[in-house]
Amino acid sequence: METTEGLDSQRQAELESALEKILKVIDTVSITTEEFKIIEKKIGENFSEKKKKEEKKEEDKDTEILEKKKLKRSNIVDLDGIKKLKSEIKKSAQVALFANESGIVFITDKGSRYVSLNPSALITTEITLDALKPLFQLDTPYVVYGYKKLLKSGIDPKNIKCDIFIGNYLLTNHTKEEFEDLVMDRDGEILKTQSEILKERSIKKMNLEEMHEFLEARAKFLYRSGDKFLEELKADKLKKIYNIEMDLVKVLYKMEEEGILIDLDYFKEYQAELAVKLDEIIPQIKAEVKKGVEHNLNMMELTEGEIRESLLQLGKLNYKKKSEYTVYEQKIEEADLEELLNNQLVFNIASPKQLGIVLFQLMKLSKVKKESVGVEVLEVLRDRDGEMIAENILEYRKLAKLQSTYVEALPKLIDENSRLHTTFNQTGTATGRLSSSNPNLQNIPVKTPEGIKIRQGFVAKDGYKLLAIDYSQIELRVLAEISKDETLILAYEQDKDLHDLTARKLFSLSEDEEVSREKRSLAKIVNFSIIYGKTAFGLSSELKISLGEAKEYISRYFSQYPGVKALETKIIEEAKHDGFVRTLYDRKRTIDGINSSNKNIVKQAERMAVNSVIQGTAADILKIVMVELNKKLEGREDIKMNLQVHDELIFEVKEEKIKEYAKLIKNIMETTVKLDHVKLKANVAMGYNWSEAK
DNA sequence: CGGTCACGC
DNA sequence: GCGTGACCG
């Protein structure tokens, strides 16, 4: 039971509970270690024998089905049949392909062909992907679902006619669509979904026929849908953005494969550092709780009974098992006050519920918002009441977040070369942005000094440096471009600091007056609110000002940038009329709720509409530029593109070439996409790690 | 498995 | 506004 590798948690739990039962029985007999070993051996033998029998049965079943139904044997391609399939594909006007780990179904003009990649599935010769390579080098157009996924599993058709995965995303803008939903949506054909099948038999145990059926149904859908999708894309002005997305697939694939190097030793060190800091904070927090409780006792604001009651509540949350809780209950009832405060004050700081009990029942802090212990509440307790514990809890949360989300998680995901390979999801956002997961490398901390330390762990390999180039205020420039607001355009023409300018506008400062740091940062927040379509309410709570003041800032902003106001009105009108909005490159986003009878929903939809156009256009630009960069840099070993973080691209570049490449890439980023009214500007940074490259 | 929180742009 | 992920109950 020590070794748990390779077992998922559910299976592990099952095994553990089984073992528990076994041990209980053994307990009643009281046996020696020697005897136990014998039993162990016996169990092992029986177990493996039983398993063998089961497997044999499965095989027999497969054979039976194969024999009985003479399962379209001609459709199953074996090693000898690959040549035949090749010529069939060659003659075919198009091919559709659907694959998973177990097999591939090809649909040609002649019909369905199944290649099993699952060695246990009764195919005499195991077919490797290598053997299939000739099939993918043909000119015949392939209709596929998820080209990047195919690339990842080693399938790379030369001529992709249509990727339904991408096409569907652009047409419907659905981000979490399952293939099954898509088919039912389009055809009304009810497929047995993967999850339904899994309920009956695990995918590994799916027999040949079931697997064939499963893959074939999907491939057939692709076969009949390719042309339809392409027509729809064209009819909906989405062909241009579709081509960009299709070109991008391979770029993303290469970036994922390349990965980014992390310094494992550094992470280990930082992990230890964080652990020490957390270890220091925890006792501090507990000491403050103890102090608070003692104070309350002395002031007769808290009774011993109340303390015991609160501790029991905590115990209920801490000890899930009844038996453990009963022991704890006993302890709490019997222990004296000294013991309670010194040893039984156990709670989980990360649990809002437990923290609530501690802060408001035991320490009797004044409630700000019920028993909520969110950031705002803790900040009030810290700033208004001077509660040290609030500051410490905030600090604890920050460190715990860094530790669990980054410092502990990232090293677990490296390959044998210490490189991290994220997955860029191309269909994961409503606006057209990419998202990144496993790990998410688009949310690596950057704001706080502690967070920046994480970036230091992202490094370049020997002889190389990281090159990070980001667009300067791309969304505001996009806003200037599509609003054609004269003030904004002029500001960028003169290369002015836009947050500075907005501060001057909001506070009616003259040219020669200095803009204070506070005013600039306030203006910056207001600028972002406009891009994000933030409400006056949101702005007021972020700036900690009154709703009236926030409204005042927003209305001043609009009067100073009338073009922006006009643009928002125009976008909202379009959304109301069409039910969708488009980016500069015609990417669509459907806006649900824009014509709702609920005022709040309408307001939210309006903000969505405005934000989508700006955010989406910026996303389009990045994608276009990434494709262009890939063309220029393809095949070069002295530079690789590693990451995209919405408005920033990160490369690993040979040290002696870095200045040359910095210049080249900056230029490509600034000139590939030409806007009519503003120039795009990119900032270059470089260094041995990601925090230096800033 | 949904809610809360925290990280990014 | 748009994301991913950790943690809790």
Automatic annotation (TrEMBL):
Catalytic function, reaction form: DNA(n) + a 2'-deoxyribonucleoside 5'-triphosphate = DNA(n+1) + diphosphate
TM stretches of this protein: none
SUPFAM superfamilies to which the protein is assigned, alphabetical: DNA/RNA polymerases (SSF56672), Ribonuclease H-like (SSF53098)
Signal sequence segment: none
Domain of life (superkingdom): Bacteria
Pfam families: DNA_pol_A
EC number(s) given by UniProt: 2.7.7.7
This protein's UniProt keywords: DNA replication
Domain DNA-directed DNA polymerase family A palm per the UniProt entry, residue ranges: 451-657
Family affiliation: Belongs to the DNA polymerase type-A family.
Protein name (Swiss-Prot/TrEMBL): DNA-directed DNA polymerase
Top-level taxonomy: Bacteria, Fusobacteriati, Fusobacteriota, Fusobacteriia, Fusobacteriales
